Structures are given as C-alpha cells and as structure tokens.
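Morning!

As promised:
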Amino acid sequence: MKTDELIRLLAADTLRQPALQRTLMLALLPALALAVLTLWFGLGFRADLLTALATPVSVARILLAGALGIAATRLALLLARPEGPQTARLWPLGAVAVAALGVLLWAFVTTPSDARQMATVGKTMATCLVTIPLLSILPVAALHYILQRGAVTAPLRAGFVAGLAGSGLAAAIYALHCTEDSPLFYVTWYGLAIMGVALVSAVIGARSLRW
Amino acid sequence: MAKQVDAWEPLLAAANAGDARAYAEFLKAVTPVLRGIVRAKGRNLGDAGCEDVLQEVLLALHLRRHTWDSSAPVRPWLYAITRHKIVDAFRARGRKIDLPIDDFVDVLVAETGPDPTEAADMAKMIGMLDRRSAMIVRKIGLEGGSVAETGAALTMSDGAVRVALHRALKTLAILRERHVK
C-alpha cells in the first residue's frame, strides 16, 4: 500500500476520540468515590472527624496528601501527551515535598525528645501501610488507563507519577479514618506507603505503557 | 527552503472535530516533512525501508491524534510522536539510534516516496484482518471509495463502517509492530 493510499484510509476514519481530560474525569472520579466508600464501610471514618477537620495539624495531612495527588494527577495528564516530558514542570511536586518535610521538621522540634519515638511509631503503622496501597489500587488503575489511551513517551516516569497521584489521593482519603495526627507519624508512614505504590506503578508503567 | 508556515494547527483542530477533508490536508502537509525526517535519520534502511517507518509514524499519529492539546503548537507534539516511533522502528529492526529532537528542524522535505518494502507492506497486513475489515480497508484505501459507498456495498450503516475502519486501523498498527519484530 502506497503512503498516499494510507493517508486516504486514515482520513476516512473520522471516529472521534474523547479528549484525555474528559476520560480522566470519567475514570478517576468514580475510582475515588469507590475508595471513599470502601474506607467508610471497611474501617469507618474517625469518630472525631469534625473536630479533626478543625485542627490544623490534622488537616495538614489531608491537604498535603491531596495537594500531592492533584499536582501529580495534572503532571500525569501532561505525561500522557507525547511532548509531555519536555513541557512538564516538576516544581509543584517539589513544593509539596518541601512542605511535608517542613511539617516533619516542625513536629520534630516541638515534640519532646522522649515522646518522639512513640509519636513516630504510633499505633496503626501496619494498618496505614496496608490500607493506603489498597485504597490506591482503583485510582492508580484509572490513571494508568488514561496514560494507556494517551501517547506516553516516558513510560517509567509516567507510571511513577500516576502512582504518586493515585496513592496521594488515597492517603488523603485514608486520613478520614486515621487518628494519628503527629506529622512524625504521617509524613513518615504515609510517605513510605505513597513511595511504595509509586515505585510499583513505575515498574508496571515501564512495561505496560509502551506503544 | 521556505519554512512551512504553520497552518497545521487549524487543520488538525478541524480534523479532530471530525472534518475529514481538513485531516487529509493535514496528513498531506506533514507527510513530506516526516518523510524527510525519517530519511535523514534512517539512511541505512533504504528509501523503501524509510517508507515503512513513515507509514508506522502516520498510523501512530492517527491513532493518537486526540492527545494533541489544541491550545499547544502542533510541531512539538508531532515531532515527539515521530521520534518515539522512529526509535521504536529502529529498535525493532535491531538498530540503535540516538535522536535529539532539535535535529528535526532543519531536515529537507521529501515529497515523493517509493513503494514500501515487501516485508512490511500494509497489503500483507490487510490480509491478516478479518474478511469484512479487510474489504473496508481495501475499498477505501486502495480503491478510493467513500465511507458511504463502502457501506452500501457491504450493506452496513455509515456509522458501522466508521467503527469497523477505526478498529481495523488499530489492529493494523498492532499487526505491523508484531510483524516487523
């Protein structure tokens, strides 16, 4: 088949594909809603949720994780485009990381030294490290679906960012249940859970996002 | 060489909104440029081999055209896809290639292409499609029929022909990759 004939063939295919943003909303929002419901019915929200939402140090968890999730989602949408790796800006992710480390440092300084270890280890480390990755599955899968429909030219990076996005949002949701309000706990263990998910997502992305 | 002043954005925007004529014009406008890029990068593949790679690039940009953000310029998007597919094609043919994107700016435009090689020829891949898809592809691509004519010949609705054509092109892209590898 000559190239001119191929062009004629391609031009005849006018079936419209939905824009990526649209697909993102259609896939990610239901995934997040399901994650919230899973948490609600599985573990329940914390009893003092309303009080916690008025406590800055507790709300900071949701804000930090949510900000990471949103910044990474936007970045993932960019990396779904072929020229994305050239135009993507990393500073929003950096800003969230710096803010998280700032909160961690602040907590380290203001927590009495004999209470630091207890605050860091907490009581629910295992639940946290299991639940955040579980809640991440659907949002991360939704983001991988978007990337699959896009044209990813940096699969490892795109997979990593999708992992950060999905697990960041999942961590923000998990914070509705978790009662550990010390940054020594949440920056450490939420952070670890998020990084774990991001790494797995990167490895999956590197294999599955080629085209 | 006269710079191809970018009338590409409005064309692709119209194409993505469903304008087949604008899309054909877009493809005709970019093809010589892409051919020039592929030839400049793949001299050792021969002209026919380059035409294979060019067709792979065209198929890829077709199936990913919805990833172009209509508020952004077309060229970076187009070159990123082209680069990706060229690297891919060379890897599949057992060659390594390093392709800085900036290099794309100054390549010569190549207007005419030879027939593609026998090995990767689309005609062969079309034979691997199911009977109806193959008929649609032949009718429109090789015989120049319209969607409506094809639908009438196969007693299918225009919509069904479009869906079948889109699926067939997706399958062709996959078949091609596998076949070359």
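Residues 33-208 of chain A form one domain.

Hope this helps with the figure draft.
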